[in-house]
Design goal:
By secondary structure, the protein is mainly alpha-helical. It is 71% helix and 3% strand. The protein has 5 helices and 2 strands. It has a two-stranded antiparallel ribbon. The longest helix is centred in the first third of the chain and has 27 residues, at 11-37. It is globular. 5% of the residues are buried. The model has no long low-confidence stretch (mean pLDDT 83).
Length: 129
C-alpha cells in the first residue's frame, strides 16, 4: 500500500512535503526561546505530566510552515490555486481557525463550548468545499 501511495505522489508534492518538514525543523528550535522569553510557557500543575515549564505555541510555528508551503505549492502548481472556490483555500481557512483557537486556548484558556463551535464551523467549511 505504501508503494502505491508513493507512486501517486508527484515530485512537486514530495518536494513540498520535504520543504515543509525542513522549514518547520529550522523554525521550531529558534522559536522556543522566544516563547520562553515572552512567558508563553505551560507551567507544571495537577493536570500536566511535565516537571518543568514547556513552551506553548510551537504548533503556531508548524502552522506558519504549513501555510508557507501551501502558498509556494500553489505558485508552482497553478491548478491547485489559492483564491476563488478552491479546496486548498478551504483547508487554509480551516487550519488557521483551528490554530488560532488552539493558540488562544493555550495562552488564556478558551471554554469548551467555544472550541467546539469553531471546530464545527471548520468542519462545515471543509464539507462545503
Amino acid at each position: 500500500m505504501f508503494v502505491a501511495v508513493l507512486r501517486e505522489i508527484s515530485q512537486l508534492e514530495f518536494m513540498a512535503f520535504l520543504g515543509g518538514a525542513l522549514l518547520a525543523a529550522l523554525l521550531l528550535p529558534g522559536s522556543l526561546p522566544l516563547f520562553r522569553r515572552f512567558g508563553l510557557v505551560d507551567r507544571p500543575n495537577a493536570r500536566s505530566a511535565h516537571i518543568k515549564a514547556i513552551p506553548r505555541g510551537a504548533g503556531a510555528v508548524l502552522v506558519v510552515a504549513f501555510i508557507v508551503v501551501v502558498f509556494a505549492y500553489s505558485k508552482f502548481h497553478p491548478a491547485a490555486g489559492i483564491g476563488g472556490q478552491s479546496i486548498l483555500e478551504a483547508i487554509l481557512w480551516a487550519v488557521v481557525i483551528i490554530a488560532v483557537t488552539g493558540f488562544l486556548d493555550d495562552v488564556w484558556g478558551v471554554p469548551t463550548w467555544i472550541k467546539f463551535f469553531f471546530q464545527v464551523g471548520t468542519a462545515v467549511i471543509l464539507v462545503m468545499a
